[in-house]
Amino acid sequence: MATQPTLETSRLRLRPFVSSDSADVESMAGDYRVAKMTENIPHPYSAGMAEEWISTHQENWIARERITWVICSNTDDKLIGCVGLVINGKHCRASLGYWVGNALWGMGFCTEAATAVVDFGFQHLNLRRIEATHLTKNPASGAVMRKIGMTHEGAMRNYVLKDGVFEDMER
Fold first, then answer.
1. Given the DSSP bridges, would you call strands 93-100 and 129-131 parallel, antiparallel or unpaired?
2. What digits encode the pLDDT tens for the residues 22-32?
3. Which residues in 129-140 are b (16+ Cβ under 10 Å) and which e?
């Protein structure tokens, strides 16, 4: 697969990011309510950061190091959020990550998108394991993981430094 595939679910289309998505990414991921619930989204999310991030996607896909999709409705192209895998090819595993805009929380979009991505990872990337972590203060993310069939493996105390505070993570 030279070109990153687009995935379809009953309500969603997961497609590669394009540079014109950058304004929506900056707005949605830059919302402190979203950023504070993730390990890696910085706050503030400065102008230009999204375009720079999006510019890495094709190279990461070609190298099979990372694959990142826009989550959008299958009826329009409006950004809902993001879902992706960070791939460790040597060990045939990947780490799953996702976020959805604050106004769209609780609608099942993360669960639906994550299910499609996990299926893709096992069926097309020949992964043996897909794992995920979430901040302990974000139990909704843990609920998504359980809904897609993941098993809780443990807590990692003071695992990440986020906004100057050490945070616990669940694996």
1. parallel
2. 999 999 999 99
3. ebebbbbbebee
